[in-house]
Write a structure and sequence with these properties.
The chain is α/β, with parallel strands linked by helices. The protein folds into 2 domains: 16-81, Chemotaxis receptor methyltransferase CheR, N-terminal domain (Chemotaxis Receptor Methyltransferase Cher, domain 1); 92-281, 3-Layer(aba) Sandwich (Rossmann fold). Helices cover 39% and strands 18% of the residues. The strands form 2 sheets. A 7-stranded mixed β-sheet has the order 6-2-1-7-8-10-9. Strands 3-5-4 form a 3-stranded antiparallel β-sheet. It starts with 15 loop residues before the first helix and ends in an 11-residue tail after the last strand.
Length: 292
Amino acid sequence: MNAPVHPEAGAAPFSDSEFERLAAFANRSFGLKLSPAKKPLVYSRISKRLTALKIGSLNNYIDLVEKTNDLGERLELISALTTNVTAFFRENHHFETVRKDIVPSLASKPGNPKRVRFWSAGCSTGEEPYSIAMTLLEGLQNTGAFDLRILATDIDPKVVQRAKQGRYGKDNVGQLPAGYLGKYFEKPDAGESYTISPDIRKLITFGELNLIEPLPVKGPFDAIFCRNVAIYFDMETQQKVWTNFANLLLPGGYLFIGHSERLTGPASETLKITGVTTYRKNGQPSSGWSTK
């Protein structure tokens, strides 16, 4: 059957074959898995681009994004196909693991200063890496003794730019732990938005990154957060991503994934589950790291 989805007023319908072509392109280019069940959702988002560009069919739109010189529209497509739902200290049990298990061990790491590296791989609008930074600064007694850096990446350049700005409304900061707003944010401006303080911002490097492409990062990392990202990938792509993360973690390092995700494939031989959607790499940690 090749029936078109009924369009909204002014938008062009698209058929099953067109959806399959778009799904193949999204998988090939971004590693995204678009199941037939997502067709109505994809339609509601992509139809807005067709209307804005005055393009009469999805096939013509795919012709446009397949052109290597039209990077801008590819980025618009990424934004349309992905959902950025995040919050400060979302899935707080992961930050509790950082507080209770990772932070106490960092003081015993070798080096002067002691090298500490975290990666937020799927940082969205920045709440996750900023939450990591606040957790580390709260726990470390002498930050001057540490070479602390947090890498924050996302495939969507629009959300990366928002994350760099570090500006959040009252609704975004309402769930912060007591005292954090005054300690880690600047006072609200006339628009009543709060801005992350310079002490937090200087710890984080933001960038655009497609996890299915060869990774330009070398690590090694003490912990990687990649939550609610792999749900967009097919099984084969997920397992490649997990394996890449395993290779980039220090022995004893942690991987935190989303509540609906599960680690499978070769990486499961190296990364062992230690808590709710929390995995730890085999091997002896650096001097002073707890092995429990």
